[in-house]
Design goal:
The protein is mainly beta. Helices cover 12% and strands 36% of the residues.
């Protein structure tokens, strides 16, 4: 990029609304206590959910309170704590009409059990349409932070483990119907805590961020450098 081009991109970034680029708000949604199975406890701030807080008799699940709309890229991180003896614990997404209550009395891999949901199991397996395939490392240990990047333009879903990308897990997701974040577990006292959830529209703002090199922070004004660090999760390149 030439100095002239760089100055033009910098001026454009400086003219943008910083809030719209995520400079101050990195918690865009929470768990919805009205969109869950009966044996689920959602915290007052809605960022933490406990599935089967006392005893487990089946598969508990909860949906997020905000839909993921076309034209955006979403990223969120979840801290999960649960038993390695569980039948399954899954982080994923699904449509509004995915039936969260279909397995309340069964121990099963709920998310990914049909065509309306996609998930990454704590066993290192991905689920969709009732099929299971080896995907990444297991994450039943308490130190695992699970990241999810959903691209509602390309229709791709990718997972991260401790901020290390595991590769695209699913493609051609249906972008005609809004998708929602979801988690499920069969284990007693399973905790899913949202640490970060943010999105960016696929537009000129995103292209501007991608054009700058976050490693050369000494050449970038602090405000723009902060935006780059906050948006580390966007793809290195993007073509619609």
């Amino acid at each position: 990029m030439t100095m002239s081009s760089y100055n033009q991109w910098e001026a454009l970034l400086n003219s943008m609304d910083h809030d719209s680029l995520g400079a101050s708000n990195h918690m865009e949604w929470g768990w919805d206590p009205l969109e869950s199975t009966t044996d689920v406890s959602v915290s007052d701030d809605t960022f933490k959910v406990v599935i089967h807080p006392n005893t487990s008799k089946g598969t508990g699940a909860v949906r997020g309170d905000m839909p993921f709309m076309p034209g955006h890229i979403y990223y969120w991180e979840i801290k999960m704590e649960g038993s390695p003896m569980a039948t399954d614990m899954i982080v994923g997404v699904g449509t509004k009409d995915f039936d969260l209550e279909s397995s309340e009395n069964e121990y099963t891999s709920l998310i990914g059990s049909d065509e309306k949901s996609w998930g990454y199991s704590f066993r290192g397996v991905k689920h969709h349409g009732g099929e299971s395939l080896i995907y990444g490392q297991s994450y039943f240990r308490g130190d695992a932070l699970i990241g999810v990047r959903l691209d509602m333009c390309r229709g791709t879903l990718e997972f991260f483990r401790n901020r290390i990308p595991l590769g695209v897990a699913f493609e051609k997701l249906n972008n005609k119907n809004p998708l929602y974040p979801m988690v499920c577990s069969t284990a007693c006292r399973t905790n899913f805590t949202i640490n970060y959830c943010h999105s960016l529209p696929v537009n000129l703002q995103l292209y501007c961020l991608q054009a700058l090199d976050s490693k050369k922070t000494s050449l970038i004004p602090f405000g723009i450098s902060k935006m780059l660090m906050d948006s580390w999760w966007i793809p290195k390149s993007y073509s619609s």
